[in-house]
Specification:
Elements lengths: L13 E6 L8 E6 L2 E5 L8 H5 L14 E3 L5 H4 L2 H6 L5 E4 L3 H30 L12 H10 E3 L6 E3 L2 E7 L7 E7 L6 E3 L22 E5 L10 H18 L2 E5 L5 H14 L8 E3 L2 H11 L7 H8 L10 E3 L3 H6 L7 E5 L8 H9 L6 E4 L8 H6 L4 E4 L2 E4 L3 E4 L9 H8 L6 E5 L3 H17 L6 E3 L9
Helix pairs in contact: 4-5, 4-8
Bound molecules: zinc ion.
């Protein structure tokens, strides 16, 4: 007597989110298939001491059981725990999109350096109180970063490759250099699973929009801005040109805090375009961030990542990230010497939310001057210095000193590296019947986005199984 196997490709897939479920950071999703286990991203938790403490906790799974890691891109909240994963026993390969290696190296080395500096500071403090034994070593150093890079292999877009138990394909996400969404076709024939990673806007300043979704039975989708749309690109560009133009006319210093990955390059490209076309006067532009300078170099080395106009200029050897009077400062001394520089000057520096980095020194030296313009182009979290300034503080404390704010503060929204609600919704229309689980967003945002997607499906006469993903709860995609 023969035993009949159940046909139809029994679905053995199991998916568990260990981060970015009901929150924005800590992306880490384990996909178990019959042929093996893949981790999609292995990111750090960010946003204050309590969040960061989670990075030091052991993984809620055995790193040695992970056969491969797939990186959707190398923002710290997607790549930051990879060195710890390797140190904890992971022995597989790290697969990443083109350009992600250079970005990951810069981001991880910077994180290692900051961790080493924090550790040294805590140790100095602890020595004075006699509690050196309580200071934890940094989670990883350059050695672990080297180990990650030794395992990392870039795979071209649109070319299927093997993952344990599946064939997979990277598609362009248009988010930052080296970003992808991922299509996974399990070997059991149960149908395509898609992981959005972080998706860029359909119309952004640097990258083409995300490749269209072309069918899936399940999508794990980001929802960072699932409850709102950004201002469109043309309006954002016009506002940026207007604000910078008026700031330059005031003759003082223009300070632009910027995230090193993506935003700094966007600002440079905008300034270069506006100054070269004569729409803005040629005022010297300084990039005062060694990390952003390294990342800009990586951007220059990957022309294929960009919109045709930018790509063509890069291939012709004409740097679209360099305004006519441009310099990048390397040393801290070169940064300090900017304080004494006379005349109008545009300074781009990190950190993006003004919580540290060289921008804070520029704020100390120039916020008290009425002809200084602070131009904020990025998200400012509650509690950050940037948020305090945007909210109109007239006096702040910096390095134990009271600083009066006579500078004017301008915000230009719209230069987001994330798709807004309309773009995310239109992208998901490429798999109208797929089950959707939402990650990478605040709980309120993801709930609102889920309700919107349900309404959107209903309006088209369909239904949609969509809800936020729950951390640590395995699901059968
Ligand atoms: Zn990202």
């Amino acid at each position: 007597m023969s035993v009949r196997r159940t046909s139809g490709g029994a679905n053995a897939a199991e998916l568990t989110s260990f981060g970015a479920a009901g929150e924005v950071t800590g992306s880490c999703h384990r996909l178990r298939l019959e042929g093996g286990t893949t981790l999609i991203d292995c990111g750090a938790f960010q946003g204050g001491a309590a969040q960061e403490a989670r990075n030091a906790a052991p993984f809620p799974f055995d790193p040695a059981e992970i056969d491969a890691v797939l990186l959707t891109h190398a923002h710290l909240d997607h790549v930051g725990r990879l060195p710890t994963l390797v140190r904890s026993g992971f022995r597989g390969e790290v697969v990443a999109p083109p350009g992600a290696r250079a970005v990951a190296e810069t981001i991880l080395r910077d994180a290692a350096k900051l961790a080493a500096e924090d550790h040294a500071r805590e140790l100095r403090k602890a020595r004075r109180s006699g509690h050196e034994d309580r200071v934890r070593p940094p989670p990883f150093g350059d050695e672990e970063v080297d180990a990650v890079l030794a395992r990392l292999r870039e795979v071209p877009y649109d070319r299927p490759f093997d993952l344990p138990g599946a064939r997979a394909t990277l598609r362009r996400a248009g988010h930052v250099l080296g970003s992808a969404w991922l299509a996974v076709d399990p070997d059991d024939g149960s149908g395509r699973l898609v992981f959005s990673g972080d998706l860029g806007p359909f119309e952004g300043p640097l990258h083409p929009g995300p490749d269209p979704l072309d069918g899936a039975r399940f999508v794990l989708c980001e929802g960072t801005y699932g409850d709102r749309d950004h201002r469109d690109l043309a309006a954002t560009r016009a506002e940026f040109a207007d604000v910078v133009g008026r700031a330059c006319a005031a003759g003082g210093r223009v300070l632009i805090p910027a995230f090193a990955l993506g935003r700094a390059q966007t600002i440079l490209a905008e300034l270069a375009r506006l100054q070269r076309s004569g729409a803005l006067p040629v005022v010297p532009v300084v990039l005062d961030s060694p990390m952003a300078a390294r990342l800009t170099q990586a951007y220059r080395s990957h022309p294929d990542a960009f919109l045709p106009a930018l790509r063509d200029r890069l291939e012709a050897g004409d740097d679209p990230f360099a305004p006519p009077a441009f310099e990048a400062t390397a040393s801290a001394e070169a940064s300090r010497s900017l304080n004494d520089r006379e005349g109008p000057l545009i300074v781009i520096a990190g950190s993006g939310m003004m919580t540290g980095g060289r921008i804070v020194h520029h704020l100390r030296h120039h916020l008290w001057k009425a002809d200084t313009r602070l131009l904020v182009t990025g998200f400012q979290a509650y509690g950050s210095l940037g948020r305090t300034l945007v909210d109109g503080a007239r006096r702040i404390r910096l390095f134990g000193e009271s600083v009066v704010v006579r500078a004017s503060v301008h915000t230009v929204g719209g230069f987001s590296a994330h798709a807004g609600r309309s773009d995310l919704t239109a992208w998901l229309d490429g798999a109208p019947d797929a089950t959707v689980r939402l990650v990478h967003g605040e709980p309120k945002t993801l709930r609102a986005f889920a309700a919107h997607l349900k309404d959107h499906a209903r309006a088209a006469g369909r239904g949609r199984d969509v809800r936020p993903s729950v951390e640590g709860r395995p699901l059968r995609p």
